[in-house]
Amino acid sequence: MHGSTCRCGCTDPRGASVHAIVAALAVDDLDHAIEGGLLVCEPCPGCSSDCTASVLAVRDARQDALAARERFRAREARLARRAEERAARRTTPSAPVTGGGETRGPALPTAAALALARAKAKAQKQH
């Protein structure tokens, strides 16, 4: 690293951390730049406008890339969850109801079965 001197020639001590980020970016060491605070850095007040613009462009591009990665991961998790839910619905056993040797369709949902039982009980009371 170049100490606190930036590649644009700035020696302002207030920009030492940004100068270290610029030096890391100059050798394509993005990991070191991120560890140095690239994602949250503010421009050095003494650096040239070109230097500041390049650092801010890299910072913004990296933030955009990380946000896109998070959106992608959330989407993938959502799609996987939906696929699991569909698979669970398909594989849920719906045992056929048998009575008198014949096979009927799938079992009723719980709420419908309860309603049917109440209706049958009510009908039996009336007779």
Please work out how many helical segments DSSP would assign. 4
Mind describing the biggest β-sheet? 2 strands, antiparallel
- Head-to-tail CA distance between termini: 96 Å
Order of helices and strands: HHHEEH
Shape: rod-shaped
Strand order in space, largest sheet: 1-2
Helix content estimate: 55-70%
What are the low-pLDDT stretches, counting only 5+ consecutive residues below 50?
Answer: none
Class based on secondary structure composition and strand pairing: mainly alpha
Q: Could you tell me the number of beta strands?
A: 2
Q: Whole-number radius of gyration?
A: 33 Å
The overall average pLDDT, rounded, is 87
How much of the polypeptide forms β-strand, as a percent range? Answer: 5-15%
